[in-house]
Amino acid sequence: MTREVFKTLLLGLLVLSSVAMTWNILFYRSDFENYKSPSGSAKSVAISENGSRSASSVVAPTLFLQHSAGGVLGETRTSQVQGAYALIQRASFSDLVPVAYRLQVPARKNDLSYEVIFPAPLMHDTLKKIFGFNEKNTAIPQNVLIDRIEFYTAEKGGLIALFSSQDGRNQFFATANRIDLSVLKHLFARTSSTSYEREHLSGKIAYVPAKKTELPTVMFYYNLKKLDAFVPILFNDPEENIFHNRGKLMYTDGQSQLEQTGNVLQYVNVNPGISDNNQQLTDPIFHSYDLLNNFKEWTDDYGYAGLELSKNRKSETVTFRMRIGDYLAFNTDYYPNPFLTQIELTWKNGQLSSFNRTLLDLNPIDQPGSVSLDSGKSILQKLKAAAVPVSRIQDLTIGYQLAAPKGNNNYSLEATPDWFYKLDNRWYSATDAIIQKGMLGKERRSS
């Protein structure tokens, strides 16, 4: 059997496994009935005809790494990352041990390991829903925030799954069953993978490409979802109890307000009250997914991309970001389109407090060109030269900059590849920062 035939058969098996996992996760027993939307979950409302997504396609890793003595190789192609993800979801985890100190982690047999990294941390309940923690004596520590899982062969035998936080600290490990490291090895396409380097950011260990990355620009045709389509979801008895400001796209019932600003929806509930169980959501990530999926609000391809928790967890914000190809999309023109490429839900006391999302519905029409992006190390050097406080950067990633709609009848948008960095919990375009520094330099020389 040739290697190509083996890879074809392997891919077929992974596709079947993925379908099975998708079915199980899509129809898992949701806790949505315990935490209803403002109008209640029984409403029969659909924002998009094809707006349902499986949990494993929304809450998913975006990077698949191979660690070896020769360095780190990475895959961002969705097909490869999802293949590894489906394989990992088939595993079961037992003998879980919280990590109290570094040497407690089992020694490695060799330098070979595989790792998946999520764009944002997963909470305790999210981990339980996605992965095979099915043994009664396998208790995941509470309050852990995990964004990466590494698999390696232990020196004493057996496969170890090491769960770590975004700052690189090991949180707990477990024995991984029903998974073969050699299958992950065959799944990893060395010929098309990219060398990656480890960068220490502020509170996060990031892996960035060691060489240039070339990606296509993408053109889209777009239309806007109508604001009134969301009224039945966000208000009780919308025909009687809400006031419509006819001079402005705005609805209110005296306590909650829904309005359209530019091309985004913004909803706020001034007094969200207290949930029926008188406590915060046990899982704001999956509850947010449930609400959006229940009303088929995935107008485009979205991925879980952000989590902010207040110290007492009275406020919990979950962000889903639009995906273009294999990368997340951004728009750094914060006014008047602060949520042009994302959906953001904030929960207070277990109830929806604010809801902000794009109204764009995109359809790709062309790939008119391509952009060559610098390596991660090179872009950090350029940002430092542009007076960006690199030591305070919280995250760094390649993505797409989606242009804001123009004020004319041209219903097309362009998405351009770029580097993006997170500073003070806000995303910025690296190209904009570098160009602005150059323009300021020219102004100083000409004055």
UniProtKB/TrEMBL annotation:
This is Regulatory protein YycH of two-component signal transduction system YycFG. It comes from Sporolactobacillus spathodeae. Residues 4-429 form the Regulatory protein YycH domain.
